[in-house]
Amino acid sequence: MADTTKDRREVSPEQLSHLLRLSALPQPANESEQNEMLDVLQAQIHFVKEIQKVDTTNVAPLVALRDESPAAIAENTIGLDDLKDAFAQEKPVGRNGRIKRQRTQKVPTPAAQTWNPLEMASKTAGRYFVVQKQKKDRKTAKE
User: Fold this and answer.
1) Of residues 59, 49, 55, the one with CA closest to residue 10
2) Which of 56, 43, 58 is nearest to 8 (CA)?
3) Whether the Cβ atoms of residue 34 and residue 28 lie closer than 8 Å to each other
4) Close Cβ partners of 45 (under 8 Å, ≥ 6 residues apart)
5) Which residues contact 28 (CB under 8 A, 6 or more apart)?
6) Local structure of residue 134 (DSSP, 8 states)
7) 50-82 pLDDT, tens per residue?
8) Residue 100, φ and ψ in degrees, nearest 5
């Protein structure tokens, strides 16, 4: 960007470094990367300031990011009629009447039954993975 934008910056390189440390983000590798980060941050600050200028005098506050119309609420409401099939699969068991769900259908899992995790191993011994570990030099381990 032009030098005029660098003069108008609201965030200094020191503030950027402090923000990156607080956010546990990596520091810029060089000055061009730092200038790019400052330009992006300045653009975001400018965007927020422009949004704050919008007159919202007669606008109702946003409660949620979902459809809150009566039709949508009625569609998303779960009633007893919706749960009849699930309740029909439950049966009290034992003297305390603990609820147990009866499975009517098995879920097909052909991929899980044919998957062999040992195919991905670089070295195996029978039915086990072999993990090779490098031995440390006793001199370097003591230091």
Assistant:
1) 49
2) 43
3) yes
4) 10, 11
5) 16, 20, 34, 36, 37
6) P
7) 999 999 999 888 877 888 889 999 998 999 988
8) -130, 135
State the amino acid at position 20 in one-letter form: L
Which residue matches tokens 């381990």? 141
**Which residues of the chain are modeled with pLDDT < 50?**
1-5
- Residue that the structure tokens 């109702």 belong to: 60
Q: Side chain identity at 44, as an amino acid letter? A: Q
User: Considering the entire predicted model, what is its pTM?
Assistant: 0.41
Residues 64 and 51: their CA atoms lie apart, in Å, by 19
Question: CA-to-CA distance for 131 and 124, rounded, in angstroms?
Answer: 9
Token pair in block for residue 11: 């965030």
CA gap 20, 14 in Å, rounded: 10
